[in-house]
From TrEMBL:
InterPro entries: Acetolactate_a_deCO2ase (IPR005128). Pathway: Polyol metabolism; (R,R)-butane-2,3-diol biosynthesis; (R,R)-butane-2,3-diol from pyruvate: step 2/3. PANTHER family: ALPHA-ACETOLACTATE DECARBOXYLASE. SUPFAM superfamilies: AF0104/ALDC/Ptd012-like. It catalyses: (2S)-2-acetolactate + H(+) = (R)-acetoin + CO2. Pfam families: AAL_decarboxy. Keywords: Acetoin biosynthesis, Decarboxylase, Lyase. One of its GO terms (molecular function) is acetolactate decarboxylase activity. Signal peptide: none annotated. It comes from the Bacteria. This is Alpha-acetolactate decarboxylase. Its EC number is 4.1.1.5.
Length: 258
């Protein structure tokens, strides 16, 4: 009886994932909380293979805060502390990541330069409600992209604002690439990153990082609206002992995401 029950549960879970992949009904899967990352919880048990069961598009980081994570087209890349990029291994783990099956409902092409703020204004006009999530992808030629990447940390871990104090920054000029990210509602601050959170990788897949600024020369914007959020909370000692509601959480996240 127990074996049959297990198989039945696995079948239902597989059918649920299959449903969301083919109906386009948006759902975000998230492992851990941004406030945990801010507090220095840099170890998780969720693997890259696990993430791809919940989405084909997203972003996050790796255990020990070892670079930035960008995912699209069912592939996950690690954007490293030296500005380089590589394919992530299936067994690498993450302390924080956000994934979805990307189902763009809105697409717009630009044949003239657009700043990051101008593109965000376009997205805000196309999806005016801040009460749902947007998955955002930009493919194109960029005049420049400015990024940063947190270097790998070692125990005992410092809080994130201390860890990023000396983070390296990089600038990619006249480059083609992909930006993948989310616009999250303001009410999710601390759970997620409220507002825009974007990562970049070059078309050669050799460089990238967490986006600080960019100017698009020409390219295509795709937006998928997402109305469901599923959070998988860790149960390890560092998460259970973390301060997830500090007084300065909004300012801390804004500083971390600059």
């Amino acid at each position: 009886m127990s074996t049959q029950t297990c198989h039945c549960a696995e079948h239902i879970a597989a059918a649920y994932v299959e449903h969301h992949q083919h109906t386009g009904e948006g759902e975000i899967y998230q492992t851990s909380l941004m406030s945990a990352l801010i507090d220095g919880v840099y170890e998780g048990d969720t693997t890259m293979a696990d993430l791809l069961k919940h989405g084909d598009f997203g972003l996050g980081t790796f255990n020990q805060l070892d670079g930035e994570l960008i995912a699209f087209d069912k592939t996950i890349f690690q954007l490293r502390g030296d500005g380089s990029a590589r394919h992530a291994d299936p067994d690498q783990k993450t302390p924080f990541a956000v994934m979805t099956f990307f189902k763009p409902e809105i697409s717009q092409t630009f044949d003239h330069p657009m700043s990051r703020q101008e593109l965000h204004d376009v997205i805000d006009s196309l999806v005016p409600s801040d009460n749902i999530f947007c998955a955002v992808r930009i493919d194109g030629a960029f005049e420049h992209v400015r990024t940063r990447t947190v270097p790998k940390q070692t125990p005992p871990y410092k809080p994130m604002l201390e860890a990023i104090a000396a983070q390296p920054e990089f600038r990619f000029d006249h480059v083609n690439g992909v930006i993948a990210g989310f616009r999250s509602p303001q009410y999710t601050q601390g759970i997620n990153v409220a507002g825009y959170h974007e990562h970049f990788i070059t078309d050669t897949r050799q460089g990238g990082g967490h986006v600080q600024d960019y100017e698009l020369a020409c390219g295509t914007l795709q937006i998928g609206r997402v109305s469901k959020l599923v959070i998988d909370l860790p149960t390890n000692a560092s998460f259970l002992g973390a301060n997830l509601t500090p007084d300065n959480i909004h300012a801390a996240i804004e500083q971390a995401e600059k």
